[in-house]
Amino acid sequence: AQSVAQPEDQVNVAEGNPLTVKCTYSVSGNPYLFWYVQYPNRGLQFLLKYITGDNLVKGSYGFEAEFNKSQTSFHLKKPSALVSDSALYFCAVRPLFSGTYKYIFGTGTRLKVLA
Amino acid sequence: DSGVTQTPKHLITATGQRVTLRCSPRSGDLSVYWYQQSLDQGLQFLIQYYNGEERAKGNILERFSAQQFPDLHSELNLSSLELGDSALYFCASSVTPDRPGELFFGEGSRLTVL
């Protein structure tokens, strides 16, 4: 079965420190990979995506993500966290050439940046 | 603003009732996705339409149904509501499912079943 795992329900980091939110996936073929952020009482907002090419992709608000094919991971990173980064983060995959048009989301990781 | 409009934003109803949630996708987007977000279930894919036709089905209950109209807006119908149906229902749109890009999400419809 195709799936996305976000192993941490919550990540706490001090403001100014680097942050990592983990994501691993299990899908056949080469998927498209995405990160979304959700602020309280809001819809999900697109942060970044990996299609092909450079394994390090840069996105909105200073976030970046590293694609690792051998480990089937797509971890979200930011060099210096801000309190305003506190939100719920979702990893998603879209399998290619699988005959399905579904985007599969992880269960989300709550990021809390402490002042 | 994502350009995706969902109504109503909030809805309170009783068990056994029926409700309709509406979604207008971004201008030009042909594909609409419906997701359910509840506290302990994360984001669950329900169903996807492309240009009026159903393209993919997820964990959608038989009590739920959806359709996409010629003007591309979509409606999600929830009937015989149960307490467990209380959740945030999101609609998302994209240009086409054949060229996977980012999804654009609405602000959601929060359904409370009492």
Characteristics:
heterodimer, A: 115 residues, mainly beta, 4-stranded antiparallel beta sheet, 12 strands, B: 114 residues, 7-stranded mixed beta sheet, 0% helix, 53% strand
| Helix run count of chain A | 0
Beta fraction of the residues of chain A? over 45%
Q: Which secondary-structure class do the elements of chain B indicate?
A: mainly beta
Radius of gyration from the alpha-carbon trace of chain B, in angstroms:
13 Å
Q: What is the 3D shape of chain A?
A: globular
* Estimated radius of gyration of chain A: 14 Å
Specify the helix fraction band of chain B.
Answer: under 10%
Q: Main interface pair?
A: A-B, 23 and 25 residues
Quaternary form: heterodimer
Low-confidence runs of chain A (pLDDT<50, min 5 residues)?
A: none
**Total of DSSP H or I helical runs spanning 4+ residues of chain B:** 0
Question: Ranges of chain B with pLDDT <50 over ≥5 residues?
Answer: none
Euclidean distance between termini CA atoms of chain B: 31 Å
Instruction: Look at the helices and sheets of chain A and give the structural class.
Output: mainly beta
The mean pLDDT of chain B is 92
Arithmetic mean of pLDDT of chain A: 91
How do the helices and strands follow one another from N- to C-terminus of chain A?
Answer: EEEEEEEEEEEE
Order of helices and strands of chain B: EEEEEEEEEEE
Largest sheet of chain A: 6 strands, mixed
Number of strands of chain B: 11
Shape summary of chain B: globular
Q: Can you summarize this structure?
A:
Chain A has strands spanning 3-5, 10-14, 19-21, 24-26, 32-38, 44-50, 56-58, 64-68, 73-78, 87-94, 104-105, 109-114.
